[in-house]
Amino acid sequence: MTTQNVNTPFFIGLMSGTSLDGIDGVIASFSSDAMGHNPIATLASAYVPFSAALRRELMALQQAGENEIERESLVAHTLATHCAACVERLLADTGYRANQIRAIGVHGQTIRHRPELGFTRQTNNPALLAELTGIDVIADFRSRDIAAGGQGAPLVPAFHQAVFASPAETRVVVNIGGIANISVLRPQINGAVSDADIGFDTGPGNVLMDLWVKVNQGQDYDANGIWGASGKVIPQLLKACLDEPYFALPPPKSTGRDLFHEAWLAEKLALFPQFAPADVQATLTALTASTIADAIVRYAADVSTVVVCGGGAYNAHLMQALGQALSRGGVSASVASTDTLGIAPNHVEALAFAWLAQRFDLRLPGNLPAVTGAAGPRILGALYPA
Ligand SMILES: Nc1ncnc2c1ncn2[C@@H]1O[C@H](COP(=O)(O)OP(=O)(O)OP(=O)(O)O)[C@@H](O)[C@H]1O
Ligand SMILES: CC(=O)N[C@H]1[C@@H]2OC[C@@H](O2)[C@@H](O)[C@@H]1O[C@H](C)C(=O)O
Questions:
Q1: Closest C-alpha to ligand 2, atom 10
Q2: Quick one: DSSP state of residue 201?
Q3: 42 C-beta neighbours (distance < 10 Å), count
Q4: Residue 258 CA: which ligand is closest?
Q5: Burial of 33 (C-beta count, 10 Å sphere; 0-12/13-18/19+)
């Protein structure tokens, strides 16, 4: 066991999201100023892709199947070894030692998200990760919020609030991962969180586009949106997709692969006898763009700046479609990636889990009840000491 240095401000964040592509990791340092802001520095980042076999098994565990307890336990073990490899890479890149890291915040892999039934499941083996790394591990960030009547998601709005809010303008942060979510950040007065700061999952981000490009082109994603851009939106298919009741629900709300999966898409496509695959991709791109834009028009029409993070920020066609959908909705905000505010789009979620680990360490709440619908602020996470 290594000796933890309690004075170090360094935290590791590890995120593996609904895209099921791999683990994004960062080492971050936070220094709170007198205003309660959290100037944040990313000291290193690393990405460990999942092997095809791990990805297949994680995908399979999204739905009910045989022998789930054993399969989940085994996959959690493999996930922990991937997480440990990511930590090792971060330490090697920076030259830091394990005892210089205060804690690791690790999300785990969501395999079920059913807040309406009172549970969410991020498969994980934090005990093994603590054993392999010799660093304190904080995990299971969602279940306390659900226990308090919340959705347990999205959690990143509190982090967005801490690092991206402006005293002068309303900002919206859009995360476009597998699922897309928005954080509406009203101008901050003396660094205080406003009750008007809301956030929720808008629906599919890349998840449906990734499924479709895999089946038709054998690719994991539509690089830069080039294939989607070669097709034409099918208005009737777009309308059939937009009829999904989730989109009209008021927040608090959250979703996942539990709803937006292959069968969901197949059901919509079954309504149409013929279609060109690239046109479907164009339509799925439009679906992601228009559901995000509708959410902004409805809940943040006063927005001045929209900043996008998550892998979707690298899809130029999607970014263009989002800008156009916002204009059609009468919102004339600028649309750019979080790079413009100093944080790379693919680092934001991992940084959020480093930040959540720091919140736990300080025994401060990590949720925004106005976002998740929880009965109140709660300290999120559970500690596995090194
Ligand atoms: N260059 C690119 N062009 C187009 N799409 C891209 C590009 N790079 C990444 N993506 C998309 O981003 C996805 C990964 O995004 P990200 O890592 O933010 O998702 P996630 O964290 O797994 O999901 P979530 O935020 O829902 O938990 C990929 O699956 C792909 O669809
Ligand atoms: C249950 C779950 O894993 N939800 C994820 C998912 O991916 C994006 C969106 O859906 C968001 O609600 C959440 O992730 C981020 C990190 C969050 O909690 O804010």
A1: 179
A2: E
A3: 18
A4: 2
A5: exposed
Q: Please indicate whether residue 62, judged by its CB atom, sits closer than 6 Å to ligand 1.
A: no
Q: Phi and psi (nearest 5°) for 63?
A: -120, 160
Structure tokens at 281: 């991709």
Helix (H, G, I), strand (E, B) or coil at 261: coil
Residue 254, token pair as written in the block:
């959250």
Q: What is the dihedral of CA 307, 309, 314, 320, to 10 degrees?
A: -30
Q: Hey, which residues does 201 pair with through a beta bridge?
A: 181
Q: Which long-range contacts (CB under 8 A, 24 or more apart) does 38-43 make?
A: 38/162, 38/163, 38/355, 40/163, 40/343, 40/351, 40/355, 42/343, 42/344, 42/347, 42/351, 43/10, 43/94, 43/96
Q: Best substitution site from 21, 86, 224 to test ligand 1's pocket, by max atoms within 8 Å of Cβ?
A: 21
Give the least confident one: 37-46, 129-138, 150-159: 37-46
Say what the ipTM of the complex is. Answer: 0.99
Q: Say how many Å lie between the CA of residue 155 and the centre of ligand 2.
A: 7
pLDDT higher than 50, residue 4: no
Lookup: tokens for 1: 């066991």
Among the listed residues 105, 79, 80, 81, the one whose alpha carbon sits nearest the alpha carbon of residue 27: 105
CA of 22 to the centre of ligand 1 (A): 10
**CA 239-243-248 angle, 5° bins:** 125
Instruction: Sketch out the chain's domains with CATH numbers.
Output: 10-152+347-384 (3.30.420.40), 156-341 (3.30.420.40)
Among the listed residues 236, 241, 243, the one whose alpha carbon sits nearest the alpha carbon of residue 275: 236
Q: Quickly state the pLDDT bin for 344 (edges 50, 70, 90).
A: very high
Each residue of 134-145: pLDDT tens digit? Answer: 999 999 999 999
Percent of the chain with pLDDT over 90: 91
User: What's the pTM?
Assistant: 0.96
- Could you report the per-residue pLDDT of 262-295, keeping only the tens digit for each? 999 999 999 998 999 999 999 999 999 999 999 9
Residue holding tokens 């303008």? 169
Q: Which residues are annotated as a binding site for ATP?
A: 17-24
pLDDT of residue 180: 98
Segment (H or E) for 80: helix 68-94
**Pocket of ligand 2 contains residue 19 by CB under 6 Å:** no
Please tell me the distance from the alpha carbon of residue 153 to that of residue 202, in angstroms, as a whole number.
12
